[in-house]
Amino acid sequence: xxxxxxxxxxxxxxxxxxxxxxxxxxxxxxxxxxxxxxxxxxxxxxxxxxxxxxxxxxxxxxxxxxxxxxxxxxxxxxxxxxxxxxxxxxxxxxxxxxxxxxxxxxxxxxxxxxxxxxxxxxxxxxxxxxxxxxxxxxxxxxxxxxxxxxxxxxxxxxxxx
Length: 161
Known about the structure:
Layout: H1 3-26, H2 29-45, H3 55-69, H4 94-104, H5 108-119, H6 124-131, H7 135-153, H8 155-159
Helix pairs in contact: 1-2, 1-3, 1-5, 2-3, 4-7, 5-7, 6-7
């Protein structure tokens, strides 16, 4: 199979999941698109040298590095005293909006750990390797992050009640 087609198939298969992860990390769809686009540009540059079993890990690490590097600093959220008027949310979307706001309260590194552990369903060891930290750091930071989310959201949202 030629590399162009192989890359296109990978993009088609994984692009949406990467966008969801990027959105969970940054809290803004436009920025998530920028992060994913930059991730796939870098992935394409190295496509021939990446071993196929590790493509997902390579792409995930690239996305995280871009997010954590802050090179796209303009996308960082700012807390404002009042939310501007917006179109009414779809039924049932209030919890997702609340979760996005609560995630924005976490530090970028802590948010990355929580997103990787609970959205991407990565193990403690995988998250530690991706972020280059000790497993104990992942455990403590995700515990603190989840506690901060519980405080911000209340038990209702996190327990599904």
